[in-house]
């Protein structure tokens, strides 16, 4: 569009220059004859009118050319801005891909760690249950041993009590016997 306007502007400028040149030639020919004077005035008027029209058109075209140049400059700036934004979008996409990969890796790592931890917890729970069962078994065995010990202690105590109760009677009997044995041995001696 700017190139077209520029081309039209230069063609109009050339036409304006040609018309100005012809106008000057027409004025110089005016002096040649009176008969041509009316014709020359008409021609001059027509050229003047055409010059004014061309000048106005050139001014308008220059104004449009300036606007087009400004718009083209803005368009180039916007193009650079679009390129910059597209570059940023590309960088963001790359960063997003990197973050997604990192997130995926961390997620997989966490899943592996969590599975391992769950296995360890499960193993520790099994071990705790096994130890609790063994402890319970030991407690029961200990309790049985204590009961057996208590029974035997009670039995021993009962036997000792009977022995003590029967012991004085036996002593007395054995004392009588020993006294009898002593007198017998005295007699023998």
TrEMBL record:
GO molecular function: ATP binding; microtubule motor activity
UniProt keywords, alphabetically: ATP-binding, Coiled coil, Cytoplasm, Nucleotide-binding
Disordered as annotated region, ranges: 1-46, 133-189
A GO BP entry: spindle elongation
InterPro entries: Kinesin-like_fam
GO CC term (a single one): microtubule associated complex
Compositionally biased tracts (Low complexity): 31-42
Biased composition (Basic and acidic residues): 15-30, 140-155
Pfam families with a match to the protein in the record: KIF21A_4th (PF25764)
Compartment(s): Cytoplasm
Domain of life: Eukaryota
Polar residues bias locations: 1-13
Protein name (database record): Uncharacterized protein
Origin organism lineage: Eukaryota, Haptista, Haptophyta, Prymnesiophyceae, Coccolithales
